[in-house]
Amino acid sequence: MNKAEFIELVREVSDFSTKKEAEMAVNGFVAAVEKALSKKQTIELVGFGKFEAVMQKGKEGKVPGSNKTYKTKDKYVPKFKPGKGLKDLVAKAK
């Protein structure tokens, strides 16, 4: 499902009368999540899940087929942990 299809789904399952309103809601939600995660804040929606920014340690490795090595730096990455309600709902779907 791409963004346009998702926006249409949001319009269908909610009280939005136009696609434009649904698009504004989706864009607003995405922007709010991005802003909170960029400030390293956690967003917890009970029953749905938790969005958070977690530290990913740097890695060392070797490029296959050569003697070159590389090292990446520590960085923050976004993480989503689904809540029990979402897990149960997905598990029931077939």
Describe what you observe in this structure.
It contains three helices and five strands; from the N terminus they run H-H-E-E-E-E-E-H. With 94 residues, it is of the alpha+beta class. The protein folds into two domains: 39 residues; 53 residues, HU Protein, Chain A. Strands 1-2-5 form a three-stranded antiparallel beta sheet. Helix 1 crosses helix 2. The protein is elongated and about 60 Å long. The two termini are 17 Å apart. The mean pLDDT is 94.
Key words describing this protein structure:
94 residues, alpha+beta, HU Protein, Chain A, 2 domains, three-stranded antiparallel beta sheet, two-stranded antiparallel sheet, 3 helices, 5 strands, 43% helix, elongated
CATH class categorisation of the largest domain: Few Secondary Structures
Number of domain modules: 2
- Termini, distance in Å? 17 Å
Strand content: 25-35%
CATH architecture of the largest domain: Irregular
- Number of E-type strands: 5
Would you tell me the structural class of the helices and strands? Answer: alpha+beta
Q: So, the CATH homologous superfamily of the largest domain?
A: IHF-like DNA-binding proteins
Give the overall silhouette. elongated
Uncertain runs = none
Question: What is the chain-wise order of helices and strands?
Answer: HHEEEEEH
Strand order of the largest sheet: 1-2-5
Main sheet, how many strands, which sense, barrel? 3 strands, antiparallel
Average pLDDT, all residues: 94
Helical percentage: 40-55%
> Radius of gyration, Cα only, in angstroms?
19 Å
